[in-house]
């Protein structure tokens, strides 16, 4: 049964969420889109997720501090209402103030924090500058473009823009805002428009497209939209798309066209919601796996479908938005992240970039869970990357009632005497997303309703001591056992939401592939799971991942201490955003892509063996 | 009467010409398109125009050496047939060997000679390189573009080319010729095509268009074509064209379209004659006056027609050939020279570049004679430039029987007891070009058939002692005296070719404007004509300019010692060629354009005064 949810408001952002009683504030904040810093993994030892509880009347709320908080915060701060978000369970509606210092360094801040390196992260490829020039007069016959160049510094220019400049300068009395992209003058706008400078970052996933509007003048995120990648109608993995491009004469154009249309529609949604003029969007930055990037660019992926799976480009691409057909400023630009190999793409480079994993002391691991699962191991200055065909289960595809982590998705499930879930948007659920899939499978394993081999228990074989609520949830569905997460009366569809035997098989495949990839990379480096100092889990499968549950289903090795696992969210999108904002980040991305060794698992004997093993859920 | 002409062949080029008996070999070589080095001005003192006379049977010819030659060459060389071209008059048909060392340093060599500076002049914007790459194989899944980059070094690339590369590499077994333009990969061609790398240099004159095909792999000139600028139908000076662009709604597009079409037709002629594939022409480099360059680029020239006459661009432009509509390689590039001011354009910068005048010791002057006369003075590290509206007389326009210096043009005239002329191409004449205009005016002044004020003598007022042949040439034409250069029986048209009173007036205007400009610039720098150490005369008005005659008509001040005057030919074309071949030259051009002070003569009192004075022919 769905539990009544408690509304929480965060200040100064004004973001709100609704969570179940007892949910740690850290998690509630994540639900509201605020990622608090918690390097200790929510153990209450690092003291970084400091927040201040405000009563509804602005006074400190009543939550008593725990011992960890007393240690980390001191009585003075506690008297002012400060608490650690990871140690504070939600008990009643409240307003919480989040100090800037407690937010997980946004990605460009992470970058600038890298080991004290001084990196100017506010150097986007697109720059605006307001300039005022003296008007030509007798004795000052300086050519128009040189006049502008004297005010602005050197720039490149194409013929079209050179043709426009003389008229533009005079229409605006030689005052206005010059826009450059990659050092090329792309516009001269009336007045001071330096505050209207936007980019869109796009995560081009095999299953899901996510786009974010970014204010380049502040670095702020102005909105995010997502949708199913329309290419899924031609198959839900990269190989079927490559096949479609190859077998049908206009297959490539078709795949390219529909994803481009979708991107343009998402840009349209973003600018409309954000009340931003489309002509003020000057750049789009793309991250996706190698095949998705090539299809987006209409670069024939056929050689990605043949041994030895060679990408067409490799390095990053800068392109004219008009050449690609992007509906932004007519002289805007596009950027596509570099890739590591045929199946380790710009999305993985994004993850490496935003986690700064290569800069960690001690071995670190990145697990990026999408339709493919990419794994990167950084150890002793070396970087190894591999891709596994995990399938789209964690994105809700191939799962009977699966869905993306959007409005109406059950995103968290706990089971004790009964079952409790929370729904994104606080509405009646219409399905469940990847994080809930992990939760429910972990809970059913714990309650022995799924065997280590992945068999769901038949209604006739249920344990005697199983609480009645759970007992009633085990049903027969398509001649196999299934588990009802939400009954037909609770859902937005009027039909029950359940986990089927087939769903569990999909989960085993997805989880096993990723786990096997981790094992193989660790073995290559001569490491054990416990040697990892940091594990970054990235992916768009929900607002949060419950580490214990991820380990319970065997997605991550149990030997990794829980506090070393950090959830990174959609790192592909974050990397696209970061590279839109920073040329330094682009250079870093290029360098990371080139430094990383691509490990081909497709013919790896150890991988096959590990995969078979990893298909079995941990019996713990 | 036309004199029988003597055929001369030059080796090793095999170039031929026909000249009048007594013509110095130096001048004959110029007629064949070979500019011999002659810094002493043909006085026989520098010894640089050394050539070897070969009899028709390959043995030394009979011409006896003069004292200057004995001094410069020594008996051993003289025995081998060596002579100084400036001291050797043509007496009979012969074959002449021209040592490489005697050719006027071609323009890029001039550049590399600049005061011992080490300038790599073989660094064109377009580069070709043949590469062979290992093919992808298991264990080598390097992306295609990175594979190429490893072989070639870094390059930029646009989306279209990135799309082509994977297929291209495989079609050609990962071997072929990479073409880059301005650091951007524009093609990957099958096989080794490094020998097929061409550019076209274009002089965009107000009256005349000249285009040259250049082999970028050798620096060699492969052909030159010229034609009337079709814009002349809208007026023969820049102001009438600016007016047309302004007054007619599609005037600019029309002016742009017809000159672009003409350029494309000339490129077509060049590649056909040169047996070169159009797709192997990767670049076009343009030099012209500011208005011509803007019309070519379709950059509205209206502000060039208003005080303070501001150019739209100023700096050089690099552009995509496709953006301009040039019919060369589809991803080829264009380059347009930087300009100095509204009426001192890329043609003048070209002249400064190829003469290296800024590097001369002592004051030097460049006089570029086209439809406008541009004058540049270099003195004590300063550069001053001014334009005068000379009009197109020296290009044969506004002259009744005037024509460009092409096939059928009388290009040299001498008058003693009778009149002698030579015709380009050795055919029956159809008109006369600028150099002949200077000659005939100078000769008529000398024979007092033109007064210092420019009045032609009436038949009834002819001097008593005038030879009969000349007497018969003075006729009445349009109610004014005129002088017959070639009678109707001698010409290709069946009509006489004559110099009219109106022609003389045009010459006075043109010559006076240029002379006045020279005087004003010298005065600004506090110099006298005799202070000039070097005077470069450039222009496309013939094969050669006779310095004495240029001084006789007052085009150049008489006080300049004759041996300091050097004819530079079409310097605009030479600069376009040089900038196609050398990025160093482009940087030099940019620097020269920016360093040069633009002197506006239009409101200069001294100019008006000097112009009035200069309209009077020297009475000497």
Account of the 3D structure:
The first copy, chain A, is α/β, with parallel strands linked by helices. Chain A has five domains: 99 residues, Roll (Ubiquitin-like (UB roll)); 64 residues, Ubiquitin-like (UB roll) (Roll), CATH 3.10.20.880; 139 residues, Nucleotidyltransferase, domain 5 (2-Layer Sandwich), CATH 3.30.420; 146 residues, Nucleotidyltransferase, domain 5, CATH 3.30.420; 106 residues, no CATH class. Helix content of chain A is 30%, strand content 23%. Chain A is built from 17 helices and 26 strands. In chain A, strands 11-10-9-12-14-13 form a six-stranded mixed beta sheet, sandwiched between helices. In chain A, a hairpin with a 3-residue loop joins strand 15 and strand 16. In chain A, helix 15 crosses helix 16. About 3% of the residues of chain A have low confidence.
Oligomeric category: homodimer
> Could you say which structural class the secondary elements and strand pairing of chain A correspond to?
alpha/beta
Radius of gyration of chain A, CA atoms, in whole angstroms: 26 Å
Question: How widely separated are the two ends of chain A?
Answer: 28 Å
Q: Which outline of chain A best applies?
A: globular
List how many beta strands of chain A DSSP finds.
Answer: 26
What is the average of the pLDDT values of chain A? 89
Low-confidence stretches of chain A: 105-120
For the largest beta-sheet of chain A, the strand count, sense and barrel status come to: 6 strands, mixed
User: If interface size is counted as residues with C-beta under 8 Å from the partner's C-beta, which chains form the largest one?
Assistant: A-B, 49 and 49 residues
Q: CATH homologous superfamily name of the largest domain in chain A?
A: ATPase, nucleotide binding domain
The CATH architecture assignment of the largest domain in chain A turns out to be 2-Layer Sandwich
CATH class descriptor name of the largest domain in chain A: Alpha Beta
Strand order of the largest sheet of chain A: 11-10-9-12-14-13
Q: What number of structural domains do the residues of chain A give? A: 5
CATH-assigned fold name of the largest domain in chain A: Nucleotidyltransferase, domain 5
The number of helical elements of chain A comes to: 17
Helix content, binned percent of chain A: 25-40%
Strand coverage percent of chain A? 15-25%
